[in-house]
Amino acid sequence: MRILSGIQPTGQFHLGNYLGALKHWLKFQDRDNECFYTIVDLHALTTVHDARTLRQNIRESKIAMLSIGLNPEKSTLFAQSQVHAHTQLGWIFTTLTPLGELERMTQYKEKAKQALKNNGVNAGLLTYPTLMAADILLYNPDYVPVGEDQKQHLELTRNIAEKFNKTYGQIFKIPNPMIYKETARIMSLQDPAKKMSKSLGPQHYIGLFEDESSIRDKIKKAVTDSEKEIKYDPKNKPAISNLLAIYSGVTDKPIKDLEKELEGKSYADLKSSLADAVVAHIAPIQQKYAEFTANFSFVERAFETGAEKARTETEKVMELVSQKIGLE
Ligand code: AMP
Ligand code: TRP
């Protein structure tokens, strides 16, 4: 199977990005798949306009990808901006996509609301999904693993592929989303109604590269639910269910098993076991992070090799696209 996915370079990833996206990427590379994983730095430009911050975030994201165990010899790793065909095809897709489809995207509506309070809404926020469709369709993947929040963009990608194929002739395979249920949405530690995200504030998330004492402290202070039973029930027990989802994510144990293990235990017990499990799971990742930071030229080479492979792949597709749409 061919797999493609992308992640924004937000720099230091948190457990939401990791359990909801990155960790799943690993599973595919160890089975006989062809994997393409990209850091979508051009997408980041819709919200980051400071060159130093962006450069730093891209570097940290590259190091993080290798630290969690993505192997450049097994997977094709690259940054979106290293492969120019993404913007080329993205533009072509904007000309096929009805404005209304873009305006009704939930992520656009949310980000536009935030942007209105700051520098205003740039057009890139609106056309974000057409660039994402290009990221995907250029590689004709069978599956695109993403978090629940990206499902709508995947549906739009499928519509764009169908529209292109119908208008110009069959080129693109219709990709399937692959959404993970239990860890699809890791919620904030302080407000389990909201997705874990850095923008909510430091107490709401756990950084993948945060130090142990701070991780333990944040878990200790995480909100809980009423009653005492440790049970996975996102509707009635959103906070405890979230802690169980994180627990399951870092131990690879099914939630059902964890519920059994924790039967009769208190919320404090749950938190203390969870903290141990999180720390144990991410210690080796943090160790690798330090090593790759010290050897950044290795990281750069890995991404350059990946980009070279990706360019070769996309050139063939772009030739065909140009021919079909009448650019040559
Ligand atoms: P972002 O940093 O928001 O661009 O997200 C990168 C990837 O991580 C996307 O595939 C998201 O769906 C996923 N992701 C981000 N936050 C969470 C979260 N709290 N829970 C699960 N997945 C998340
Ligand atoms: N929009 C995705 C996010 O916010 C990132 C992304 C961009 C992506 N291009 C992609 C994900 C292609 C999967 C495939 O998380």
What features would you describe in this structure?
This protein is mainly α and 328 residues long. It has two domains: 208 residues, Rossmann fold (3-Layer(aba) Sandwich), CATH 3.40.50; 93 residues, Tyrosyl-Transfer RNA Synthetase, CATH 1.10.240.10. It is 56% helix and 8% strand. The chain contains 13 helices and five strands. The strands form two sheets. It has a three-stranded parallel sheet. It has a two-stranded parallel sheet with strand order 4-5. Helix 4 packs across helix 7 and helix 7 crosses helix 8. It is globular. The two termini are 32 Å apart. The protein binds adenosine monophosphate and tryptophan.
Architecture (CATH level 2) name of the largest domain: 3-Layer(aba) Sandwich
User: Which molecules other than protein and nucleic acid are bound?
Assistant: adenosine monophosphate, tryptophan
The CATH class of the largest domain is identified as: Alpha Beta
How would a textbook summarize the main sheet? Answer: 3 strands, parallel
End-to-end Cα distance: 32 Å
Q: Give the structural class.
A: mainly alpha
Low-pLDDT stretches are none
Radius of gyration, in Å, reads: 21 Å
Q: Could you tell me the mean pLDDT? A: 95
Largest beta sheet: what is the strand line-up? Answer: 1-2-3
Helicity level:
55-70%
- Secondary-structure element pattern, one letter each: EHEHHEHHHHEHEHHHHH
**Anisotropy-based shape:** globular
Question: Can you say what the CATH homologous superfamily of the largest domain is?
Answer: HUPs
In total, the number of strands is: 5
Q: Classify the beta-strand content into a percent band.
A: 5-15%
Query: How many domain modules?
Result: 2
CATH topology type of the largest domain: Rossmann fold
Number of helices, where a helix is a run of at least 4 consecutive DSSP H or I residues = 13
